[in-house]
Design brief:
The complex is a heterodimer of chains A (225) and B (78). Chain A has 225 residues and is of the alpha/beta class. Chain A has 5 helices and 11 strands, in the order βαββαβαββββαβββα. The longest helix of chain A has 13 residues. The chains are: A alpha/beta (225), B alpha+beta (78).
Chain lengths: 225, 78
């Protein structure tokens, strides 16, 4: 059966097209584009992507307004039913603001906007998003953010690590994230938020293809399930 | 009714903006500043019928991120 994915667009997004292209290239089926003001999602979705950008101009806090927009109620319900949800960059910020993932993304420790390719260590290679990687593998994926400095309290961090919910860590100092966390999973494992942009590393013309396995893992996992 | 909501970072949460401001103050030659924490002030103009519970809920649901921030509600005499 064809892979049905949706890409959510909030006002101020600029990575939604890249995300749709990545999903189409890897799955062979065009992604359905969904606008933030829509009250419902298309039915029978296999995958929901919240891409990156600057939703609502990052007003109040990055992702704060988008997390309260009409479509997010539908995304929260779908996530609760087990539909895989990937949030990248601002999408990660939206997922934390919406309470689908623990923690918060604060201003980078350096105060600078950081835009470069960074090395990441794959911590959990068992999830539906990361099964195409080896545990401990170093991959290179671009980041482009001002607010990527992950924070959660010690008890939450210990629980995340204990439950294997840290998907990726930065393999070098990037933005001040606590315990170098770059991406986290929810308790059920069907929601992943990460600051690096895997959709910007799926084609040799991007300068690297290390992000491709993430989408391939998701597509393959769902087709085989 | 005018309401001021003061949002500040929780103790123990590193504040990069406060640190940058601290550095800048030192750079200007001000000594004796031990620490700087930056926050946010949000002013609301609300009907008198808006309850304290509703104001509290506004803060918890949107104005502050309870993972990293505290808030304080101050009612201002018109």
């Amino acid at each position: 059966m064809a892979f049905r994915s949706a890409v959510i667009t909030f006002p101020g997004y600029n990575c939604d097209r890249d995300m749709a292209v990545a999903l189409e290239q890897v799955s062979g089926t065009p992604a359905i584009r969904v606008w933030h003001g829509d009250a419902s999602l298309p039915d029978r979705l296999d995958f929901i992507a919240l891409p990156g950008g600057f939703s609502y101009g990052d007003y109040l806090r990055s992702g704060a307004m988008a997390a309260r927009s009409p479509i997010m109620q539908a995304v929260i319900e779908a996530a609760g039913r087990g539909v895989p949800v990937l949030g990248v960059c601002n999408g990660f910020q939206v997922l934390t603001e919406a309470g689908l993932l623990p923690g918060a993304l604060m201003r980078n420790a350096s105060q600078n906007f950081i835009c470069r390719t960074v090395p990441l260590k794959v911590e959990n290679s068992q999830s539906l998003f990361t099964a195409g990687y080896e545990a401990g593998q170093i991959v290179h994926i671009p980041v482009a953010h001002h607010d990527g400095n992950y924070f959660a309290d010690e008890a939450t961090l210990d629980r995340l690590e204990g439950e294997g919910r840290v998907a990726f860590r930065y393999a070098e100092q990037v933005n001040g994230s606590i315990r170098d966390i770059a991406g986290v999973l929810n308790e059920a494992g069907n929601v992943l938020g990460m600051m690096p942009h895997p959709e910007r590393a799926i084609d040799p013309a991007h300068g690297g293809t290390d992000g491709r396995a993430l989408f391939e893992s998701a597509v393959k996992g769902l087709v085989e399930a | 009714m005018k309401v001021r909501v003061h949002v500040s970072l929780k103790n123990g949460v590193l504040d990069p903006q406060g640190r940058a401001i601290h550095h800048a103050l030192e750079g200007l030659g001000f000594s004796g500043v031990n620490d700087v924490r930056a926050g946010r002030l949000i002013e609301l103009d609300v009907d008198d019928s808006v309850t304290d519970e509703a104001l509290d809920e506004m803060c918890r649901k949107l104005l502050a991120n309870m993972v990293i921030e505290n808030y304080r509600i101050e009612k201002v005499a018109a």
